[in-house]
Batch of 2 targets.
Target 1
Amino acid sequence: MQCLIDGRAVHVACVAPQAASAAHVVVLVHGAGNDHRAWQPLLHGLGQAGLAVYAPDLPGHGASEGPLLRSVGEMAAWLLAMLDACGIDRCALAGHSMGSLVALHAAGLAPRRISHLALVGTAWPMRVAPALLDLARTQPDTALRNMVMWSYRQRDGQPLCPECAQRTYARMHAVQAGWPAGDLLATDLALCDAYAEAEAAAARIDAPVAFILGEHDRMTPVKAAQRLRAAWPQASVTLLDSGHELMEEATEGVRQALLELLAHPSGGQS
């Protein structure tokens, strides 16, 4: 589906539930250098479970018009505007990597609108190595290839699923190439590295929270989520046999973790 935010076209993948009405509305937020297709493995499975699922392309990514947004806070405000444009009063949010920071910040901005929060492949602080930041500015294709290599479980220095890695690279390459200025990946990585408001946002959230993490994640290692997990001692934590691309490497595990989260009484109304 298409909607307009500030007169600019936004692409949102939408899957309606098989039942006449949805038990929950879930909005899925993609990560750096990606678009809604990062969530493609889960869309129909969640719809079949009775959820109404929305997966937007962030500004300048995929089929959504720019401009690129330059901070997590700007992206979070845009996400809330997208909810308005799609007629979504209240929903669960799930974000992957950069998208987890966007979902977290949006929930902090509008806690009454967010029933549940899932942070997938998350970390905070989400530091990006200076060498990768520089490579994203000067040789973005090389940076993309490195990121894809690091995002999958490996054997002998190679992804266990080379076809999966190639698909991910092709998608991210297309997203990067679709932004004429060429700075999409560099912008995304820089805003992840700069984000400093996670604890303040977390303090405003009273919705049930789930961490869904990959045991073999080299991009956002499990230990890098410890500081954020401390904000919610009661949050559920699911560790999956996966690298950073959990939605592809551990599709069913992510789906089950999301459904278990949504089975908890909703928050965000106090």
Target 2
Amino acid sequence: MAQDPQIPGLEHRPSDSPYVERVYRVEPGAAPAPARMVSVANSNWELIAWTAGGVTSVSVRGPETRPTVVPMGGGMDGAFGVVFRHGAHLRNLPVPALVDSSVDSPHATDRTFVLEGAEWEIPAYGNAEVFVDRLVRAGLLVRDPLVADVLAGDTPLLVTPRSVQRRVAAATGLTQGTIRQIERARQAAMLLQAGTAAADVVHLVGYHDQPHLARSMARFVGRKATELQKPAPDEVLSLLYKTDAQVRP
């Protein structure tokens, strides 16, 4: 379990489930939220439930290929999210249709929500995998294990490169190249936040040079290296974490 010092009340943990990358929550009653959050590009999709003004909402949020700025202003009373692994997807809600978009549940209460025409209980931080297993047993959540293996650097046997490309795109909505570019930018952002010099980040993450790093930060993170090393006091980045996807060219 890890806590993010930038986002008040946020904690997150990895998962052993082959379907789940990470689980996170933002506890209500934490310190006042910053004025805005920079939601950086993300190659995974997620299910998120949040409460604001006493109203609970649930949404399936797709991969994001560009950063966006989200006003916060202390308006959120708590949130919970499940980030799914590359290759996992809802059978009737293909990930390609969710890229840079989201689908809201048509009905949600503080305890339940509607997904794929059925009512489900909103899971808790500690039992997210139980909820995911129920989705799998119901035939709603499926996965292509080849996708995760390929993105981790394995070379599949008896599968043509073109077939691999098609399967990655079908399961993730993104190309292998785009996923690696996004993951590389996220890892670079984490290193810069930790105080690593930009010249060292170039070498560690696999950029050609510092201008290449700068272009990647602008495209996927929306902030310069210096802004990540000395962030504005009223601004935070969205959740950053390392995945198994290869990031070097």
